[in-house]
């Protein structure tokens, strides 16, 4: 009823409809006083934020770049500032030291597989929970728990569950699945396993931290994909069903094209965050057993070794490589991005 | 109803092979779907169940029977909570102090961030000022920045100034990390408030600040609350900066930091620390379930950094 009565008013040439769409600045083109006032108020309102961000983010980053080109150690930290001897020695040291390229490689594997896993599980979860059933709301909310829970608590429970002495996973493995020995999931670099007679060395600690990443981040993908699925018009699915398309065909040809832009955005977001991730690996393995990623290495250089210059150089390389990877990705798939 | 009536004639007329495949896939999904849901639910919830379970057991009973997923009445042992909460001077782990610290930092971050972000978001969404677009771009860039790169200079600076170990320093860093995201999400809500409402108020003689306070703020309240909850969760869960700045002073540890530091030592029993994990997790989960509707919107609008 209300829509009917409101209809003619909006459809008619009333001034309200166009006014809502135009930005406030252009409405008062005549009065330069109001525009000046608006400019002043805007700047006044935004300036606290800008000051905080510049002081606590922008300046430190510029300083980090300066530090990367200086030989600074924790011991002589008092005297350091912007002025000092600039040198490329840090980068030379970092790039020639044995661990860095390995850590970079681990970071790449960790973030690529972790991202794929998180989005894959999130997609399966979103599809499985698409049709309503009693209790769906509660299950949906529960699936978000790994994502909202504090990372320290989550890693602590995981490492207790995986503990070789009293963890429930190893108890289950040895008692029910018949493992010969308990597996040290978080401190074994390689686990010899025979698959169909083949002797394979599984990088078990790396696999575990990747699984943790998938477990912790899939709710994020699940949330986004669920929201996108709800926006897919029901008619499309219905029409395909009437035409005799099987569920897998409907997914392949109807749903997937609709979801792809969202998946592309999720890929970028998850990849960036996983690539930069420090907490999970530091808390699970401390970077040991073949799981050292660049950010954990930076932390080690910063605190344990006190080599601030090298730490800054590695962090900078991490950021630059990430920016390049994301840039290449956007260049390749940029068009899909814009649709999302 | 409609699907079943539409499907009957089709399945009769379609070729046998297509019919079989469709039938097969539907049957498979019928079995697979509940299985997948159960599995996902178990994977998501079991670790938290395990956490609560262990927190009520003693270490001896855990070592004797690591596979037990149920707790009998005589095993039930809530003393872990007393142990973990009691101050260090009384032989406890001092989690009560950690909770106070976390609460101070998290609430402080929420209040300060919102105080700064609400006017900022209003300006970005409503007012045409010089450099508006650049500012938005800057905030977005902050959001995606590797925090480990930021950690290096901040660590150096805090060491130089002697602010390491102070909660205030941590608070400032949190605000700077959160405020950009906060503006980004709030901005979208301010944009949904009809301009005509504000114009009406302006015609009635309201000043810009009065308009903000009386019109835009109340209308954007749901968004502001969800944003506040979201900031609280980020600050409560944060680990890296707490580790860098507070690690040397035990009395200013947050709950996250305290748990991570104590879990490395052998002296504290795992079950006692499980009680600590429950204490760390419970406020977040309670907040989450109490405000799930609001929060889910906040999570998708400005996803957590991490």
UniProtKB/TrEMBL annotation, chain A:
Any single Pfam family the record assigns to this protein: BPD_transp_1
Cross-referenced InterPro entries: MetI-like (IPR000515), MetI-like_sf (IPR035906), UgpAE/MalFG_permease (IPR050809)
Main subcellular location: membrane
GO terms for biological process, alphabetical: transmembrane transport
CDD domains: TM_PBP2
One of the record's GO cellular component terms: plasma membrane
Protein name, per record: Transporter
Taxonomic source organism: Agromyces bauzanensis
From TrEMBL, chain B:
Keyword check for Acyltransferase: no
InterPro entries recorded: BP-dep_ABC_trans_perm (IPR050901), MetI-like (IPR000515), MetI-like_sf (IPR035906)
Domain of life according to the entry: Bacteria
Localisation per UniProt entry: Cell membrane
Annotated GO CC locations: plasma membrane
Membrane topology qualifier: Multi-pass membrane protein
Primary location recorded for the protein, binned into one broad class: membrane
Biological process according to GO: transmembrane transport
TM regions (residue ranges): 31-52, 103-125, 137-161, 167-186, 217-246, 266-289
Domain spans labelled ABC transmembrane type-1: 99-291
Keyword Zinc carried by entry: no
One of the Pfam families matching this protein, by short name: BPD_transp_1
Keywords of this entry: Cell membrane, Membrane, Transmembrane, Transmembrane helix, Transport
Family as reported in the entry's similarity comment: Belongs to the binding-protein-dependent transport system permease family.
PANTHER family: INNER MEMBRANE ABC TRANSPORTER PERMEASE PROTEIN YCJP, MALTOSE TRANSPORT SYSTEM PERMEASE-RELATED
Protein name, as recorded: Transporter
Species lineage: Bacteria, Bacillati, Actinomycetota, Actinomycetes, Micrococcales
């Amino acid at each position: 009823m209300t829509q009917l009565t409101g209809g003619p008013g909006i459809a008619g040439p009333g001034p309200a409809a166009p006014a809502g769409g135009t930005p406030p600045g252009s409405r008062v083109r005549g009065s330069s006083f109001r525009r000046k006032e608006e400019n002043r108020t805007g700047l006044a309102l935004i300036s606290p934020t800008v000051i905080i961000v510049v002081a606590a983010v922008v300046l430190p980053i510029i300083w980090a770049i300066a530090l990367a080109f200086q030989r600074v150690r924790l011991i002589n930290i008092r005297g350091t500032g912007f002025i000092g001897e600039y040198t490329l020695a840090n980068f030379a040291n970092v790039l020639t030291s044995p661990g860095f390229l390995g850590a970079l490689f681990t970071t790449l594997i960790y973030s690529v597989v972790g991202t794929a896993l998180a989005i894959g599980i999130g997609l399966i979860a979103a599809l499985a929970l698409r049709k309503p059933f009693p209790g769906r709301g509660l299950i949906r909310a529960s699936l978000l728990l790994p994502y909202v829970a504090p990372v320290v608590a989550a890693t602590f429970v995981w490492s207790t569950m995986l503990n070789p002495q009293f963890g429930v996973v190893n108890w289950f493995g040895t008692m029910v699945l018949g493992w010969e020995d308990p597996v040290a999931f978080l401190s074994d670099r390689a686990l010899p396993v025979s698959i169909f007679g083949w002797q394979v060395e599984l990088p078990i600690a790396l696999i575990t931290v990747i699984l943790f990443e998938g477990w912790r981040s899939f709710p994020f993908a699940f949330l986004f994909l669920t929201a996108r699925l709800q926006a897919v018009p029901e008619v499309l699915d219905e029409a395909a069903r009437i035409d005799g398309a099987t569920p897998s065909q409907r997914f392949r040809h109807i749903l997937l094209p609709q979801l792809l832009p969202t998946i592309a955005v999720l890929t970028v977001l998850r990849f960036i965050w996983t690539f930069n991730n420090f907490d999970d690996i530091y808390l699970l393995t401390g970077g040991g057993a073949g799981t050292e990623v660049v950010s954990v290495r930076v932390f080690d250089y910063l605190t344990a070794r006190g080599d601030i210059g090298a730490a800054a150089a590695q962090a900078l390389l991490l950021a630059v490589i990430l920016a390049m990877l994301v840039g290449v990705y956007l260049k390749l798939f940029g068009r899909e991005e814009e649709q999302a | 109803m409609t699907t079943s009536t539409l499907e009957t004639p089709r399945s009769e007329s379609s070729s046998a092979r297509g019919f079989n495949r469709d039938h097969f896939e539907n049957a498979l999904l019928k079995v697979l779907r509940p299985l997948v849901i159960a599995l996902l639910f178990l994977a998501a919830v079991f670790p938290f169940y395990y956490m609560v379970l262990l927190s009520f057991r003693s270490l001896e009973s855990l070592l004797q029977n690591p596979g037990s997923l149920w707790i009998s009445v005589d095993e039930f042992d809530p003393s872990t909570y007393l142990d973990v909460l009691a101050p260090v001077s009384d032989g406890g782990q001092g989690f009560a102090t950690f909770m106070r610290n976390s609460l101070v930092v998290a609430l402080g971050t929420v209040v300060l961030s919102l105080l700064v972000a609400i006017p900022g978001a209003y300006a970005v969404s409503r007012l045409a000022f010089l450099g508006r677009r650049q500012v938005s771009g800057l905030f977005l860039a902050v959001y995606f920045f590797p925090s480990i790169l930021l950690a290096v200079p901040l660590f150096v600076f805090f060491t130089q100034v002697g602010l390491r170990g102070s909660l205030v320093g941590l608070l400032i860093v949190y605000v700077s990390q959160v405020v950009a995201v906060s503006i980004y999400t709030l901005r979208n809500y301010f944009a949904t408030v009809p301009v005509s409402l504000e114009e009406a108020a302006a015609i009635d003689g309201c000043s810009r600040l009065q308009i903000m306070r009386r019109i835009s703020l109340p209308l954007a309240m749901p968004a502001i609350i969800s944003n506040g909850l979201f900031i609280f969760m980020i600050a409560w869960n944060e680990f890296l900066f707490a580790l860098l700045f507070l690690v040397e002073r035990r009395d200013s540890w947050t709950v996250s930091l305290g748990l991570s530091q104590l879990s490395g030592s052998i002296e504290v029993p795992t079950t006692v620390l499980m009680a600590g994990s429950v204490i760390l997790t419970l406020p977040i989960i309670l907040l989450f379930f109490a405000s799930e509707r609001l929060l889910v919107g906040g999570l998708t609008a400005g996803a957590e950094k991490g």
